[in-house]
Amino acid sequence: MDASMFRKLHDPGATVPALTLTIDGQTVSAEPGDSIAAVLLRLDPPFSRTTPVSGSPRTPYCMMGVCFECLASVDGVASTQTCLVQVREGMRVERQHGRRALTMAMSENAAVDDVSDVGTADPRDGMPSGVSP
Fold this sequence. Notes:
Blueprint: E1 19-23, E2 26-30, H1 36-41, E3 49-50, E4 57-58, E5 71-74, E6 77-81, E7 92-95, H2 108-115
């Protein structure tokens, strides 16, 4: 497919200031009031994410926040419903590919301190420490 089947309709003679945002590192123009999902639909290819299991592309569908097909990363926030967010100047959008990676920011000491007594049993009753029967 060479071009998207979606395009923006304009009133004849109307001048609307353009906003600039980046989608997957590509500079894209949009108009105030456009949702990110509407901008994604006008791109080629028009998908916003790929599925976690098969990797097939998914396109914004309901455009009202019900179906969750429009999820993308917006300004570093993953799984944002792009149909509910209006474009802003300088916004950064990244399509989500596959399963989302979760990371936890913890210091090495915090991890050790938090789990140091987990699972240790009190020899008197066999219950883990800190747990009462």
